[in-house]
């Protein structure tokens, strides 16, 4: 297996796993849906889970990998406000919890870079 196909497989697994958790354990996701979004938080939780599963399927298929990886990069950017909301909401939590949540924020950058690398086929 080439490095690029391994990166694609791992990205697909990450996205599929994340997508499944939106349905199996939706409450933590509901809590970080920005209030500015219309409708119910659970609807957004499920929609983002569907988007992650769709991205996983597209990335897993070599014929749709490029489009799927670009969609994945866009999704990583789109969910960033939820991570910011979680960091704001958790600012009064104990330091270890707060540190973990704050550490998530810069992780979006390498995730986007990973998806773009998969899209490029490198």
TrEMBL record:
This is DoxX family membrane protein. It comes from the Bacteria. It comes from Actinomadura barringtoniae.
């Amino acid at each position: 297996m080439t490095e690029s196909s391994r990166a694609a497989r791992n990205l697909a697994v990450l996205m599929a796993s994340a997508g499944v958790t939106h349905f199996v354990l939706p409450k933590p996701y509901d809590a970080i849906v920005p209030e500015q979004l219309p409708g119910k938080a659970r609807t957004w939780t499920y929609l983002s889970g569907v988007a992650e599963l769709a991205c996983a399927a597209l990335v897993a298929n070599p014929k749709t990998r490029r489009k799927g990886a670009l969609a994945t990069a866009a999704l990583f950017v789109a969910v960033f406000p939820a991570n910011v909301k979680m960091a704001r909401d958790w600012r009064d939590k104990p330091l270890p919890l707060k540190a973990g949540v704050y550490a998530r924020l810069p992780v979006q950058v390498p995730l986007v870079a990973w998806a773009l690398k998969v899209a490029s086929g490198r």
